[in-house]
Amino acid sequence: MPILQAVVNIAELLHQKGITDVVVCPGSRSAPLTLAVARHPRLRVRVMADERSAGFVALGMAQQRRQPVAIICTSGSAVYNLAPAVAEAYFQQVPLLLLTADRPHEWLYQQDGQTIDQVGIFGNQVKRGYDLPADYTHADARWFIERTLNEAINLSRLSPAGPVHVNVPLREPFYPTADEAFTYERVRVIDVLAAPPTLPTETWHQLLAVWDRTERVLIAVGQLPCDPAMLAILKKFSDELGVPVVGEITGNIPMNDSFITKGDTFLSGLTDSAGQGFRPDLLITIGNSFLTRNLKTFFRQYPAQQHWHIQPTADRINDSFQSLTTLIPAEPLPFLEKLFADVDYQRFLQGDDEDETNGFLSHWQAADRLAAKLVQQTVSDPGDLLTDWSAVQLVLDQLPEGSVLHLANSMPVRYANLCGIHERQHISVWGNRGVSGIDGCLSTALGAALITDQLVTVLIGDVAFFYDRNALWSAPVPPNLRIILLNNDSGHIFRIIDGPSRQPELEAYFETPHGYTAKRTAEDAGIRYQSGNTIESLRSLLPDFFQPGPTAALLELTTDKLANQQLFTRYKENVKTQISPKL
Length: 583
What we know:
Distance between the termini: 76 Å
CATH architecture of the largest domain: 3-Layer(aba) Sandwich
Helix content: 40-55%
Strand content: 5-15%
Largest sheet: 6 strands, parallel
Oligomer: single chain
Strand order of the largest sheet: 2-1-3-4-6-5
Shape: globular
Number of helices: 23
């Protein structure tokens, strides 16, 4: 029997519990775990040398799979390097299983190498942490390990999904001898049956009564994965019930004739009377975080009398707009489907099921059209001058239908939200908006490309790209990955934000110019490299750039940070002079 059979069986349990993908970071202490998954015939294993990048690659894979992805790393500081991705997964509610090798605990604080206190190392950024025994031979220890792994995997999936940590102390020897063959024994699988919360009939009647006496209802959608069924029911609320549906690109709310997607533009700088005109009586929110400051500020400044937030569990109160009156523990999609059906039926019984003009909806939609027109005019102003914003608009317009878009944090995600994506494009949008860091944006997109056959495009700024270029270190880079790099040689967002932009230390201490290009990075990674610095060059490059090919591709667009700033400043002035007075 191989040494550490209980560890070998962990790989079989991963398979039996439906985990298909494992990201491994090289290390000696973790060798028993690594060999167990590497030799398992049914597990797909990806090797990433940089633990920080590896965590985000696993995150991108788990986003697409909607299932846990396991990560294996060695002991010591390697474990800490997983922390940024763990935090993002926790707040984005993405399931990860962290298997960290460790020295037996008696060696802690004994000046032994690669030894830190790993129990509870991720604190409150994981759903739970487990610590396995260092001795695996006793029957009770093997029973405990099997039970713990079952519980950990189940917990990572249970709503709200998230990362779970299993610390694995390991004694030497780590490696089997030449005459020892791995045998994957039968393992016991313990499943947890789904028991979604159901609202009592009396509660439904109370909610319907609130709806019935409310004139101005609005639905706001936070960050959510792309779901055609969700879009369909939201469109029914708008088109048939006259309810404004307000969303952002990170919530996968596309541009169409129904939804409100330009709130960040027209909700800024409102007079009090204009703000009162957009104020809902009942606000219904679904999804995770909202992206734009103006949208969040509006709902805080003009709170609804009633605010329902729908989330699967009631373990935490999400009161981002500081106006919550009712937390509804339900899955958003079935809740909205039932709510629409009941309201629609009630209207039928009351004889008012005919389509009626809704002034509240029309008011929001008119403002949205006005803002969309202004955005289009603004981004067209520079002519042939390439800016970050005009580049994003061109890229979004030409994205292949049915592809995947990853938006890096800082300005790319904000420019993309201002531009928007049309419904007919059927684009699935992702972004690390759990904690909104720049540290793993490229790695997350690469992880997505490893899982899907669709084209995956990542829009990323230069600081985020160079910070995370170790994502391209562990070959091969998937050929369906497309990287659009906006290189303005600075942390451009600090020139846009009012505070740092007014400081004399702006360039040296905030923007931090670097002078790098991505050409050599692309060459090192073996991916196709192109560059451009005009609107015309971008137009000519994009059609070929998005074509399938044998390697990934990187398109570096060089822009001037001062021109970017001037365009954004002009946009804000135009909002004040052309939008606000008309609302």
